[in-house]
């Protein structure tokens, strides 16, 4: 008998087939979504990106002073290793040749572990007087005397951010005279073109700036390293997220690029035109 011979049989056949079919559960799509890994939120990604490195000891961090006290106990060798470790962290695919190009040698770094005061903002001037008091190339001249050439300081102070550089500029005002400026060489509210014009017309003993802005001014030629005797790196300072200048990729990479640039690296060590690195 065909399906058309009996209407009821036809209907029953359709109903039975529909019952045999196993419908997709209503919650399958939802369950699948729940099983899939959730994408990381922007806020979580930012927290992950900005957290302090795992090798930073919390016991050494003083948030009230904004100081990482561990830096004070690092001699020249330990600081050179510390910089190399950070470079490897932020550039894991770097070749041996590239690592050698940006390597900061131990001989470039002056040992300042004898400094027994907190490396806070208000103590930086005293630190510089102790370790860079008399200008090496000019007998009898102190930090407040500037070279005659404009835009050519004897000392550069490198900070991790514009606001921090501004704080340090104020802390070093005792070295400023009418003939020797403590120049602000950072990007905060100051466009590069304006900075170039200022540097070219300013006789300065000390320049305080951020790594990338200092690189830009040196590349332009407005800032000269001809009379440079020392670079002071504000390494002990930490922000509210417990990070120092070497703990953030956006400041560590340009800092190492600055310190390893041609024209500076070959002057580390001893000899005429020596440049020394002081880590505060």
From TrEMBL:
N-terminal signal peptide: none
Name of the protein in its database record: Protein CMS1
UniProt-listed InterPro entries: Cms1, P-loop_NTPase
Organism for this UniProt entry: Friedmanniomyces simplex
Biased composition (Basic and acidic residues): 32-43
GO CC, alphabetical: 90S preribosome; nucleus
Pfam families given in the database record: CMS1
Disordered: annotated segments: 1-55
């Amino acid at each position: 008998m065909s399906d058309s011979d009996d209407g009821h049989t036809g209907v029953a056949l359709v109903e039975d087939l529909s019952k045999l079919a196993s419908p997709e559960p209503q919650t399958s799509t939802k369950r699948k979504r729940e099983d899939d890994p959730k994408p990381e939120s922007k806020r979580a990604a930012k927290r992950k990106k900005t957290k302090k490195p795992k090798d930073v000891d919390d016991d050494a961090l003083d948030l009230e002073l904004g100081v990482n006290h561990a830096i004070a106990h690092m001699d020249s060798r330990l600081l050179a290793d510390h910089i190399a470790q950070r470079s490897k962290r932020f550039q894991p695919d770097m070749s041996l040749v590239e690592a050698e190009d940006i390597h900061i040698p131990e001989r470039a770094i002056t040992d300042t572990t004898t400094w027994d005061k907190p490396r806070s903002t208000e103590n930086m001037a005293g630190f510089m007087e102790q370790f860079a008091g008399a200008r090496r190339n000019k007998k009898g001249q102190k930090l407040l005397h500037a070279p005659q050439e404009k835009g050519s300081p004897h000392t550069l102070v490198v900070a991790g951010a514009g606001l921090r550089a501004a704080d340090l500029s104020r802390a070093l005002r005792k070295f400023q005279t009418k003939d020797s400026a403590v120049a602000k060489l950072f990007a905060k509210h100051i466009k590069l073109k304006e900075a170039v014009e200022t540097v070219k017309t300013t006789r300065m003993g000390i320049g305080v700036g951020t790594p990338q802005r200092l690189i830009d001014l040196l590349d332009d030629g407005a800032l000269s390293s001809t009379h440079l005797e020392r670079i002071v790196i504000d390494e002990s300072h930490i922000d509210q997220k417990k990070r120092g200048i070497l703990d953030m990729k956006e400041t560590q990479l340009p800092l190492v690029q600055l310190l390893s640039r041609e024209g500076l690296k070959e002057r580390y060590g001893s000899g005429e035109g020596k440049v020394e690195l002081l880590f505060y």
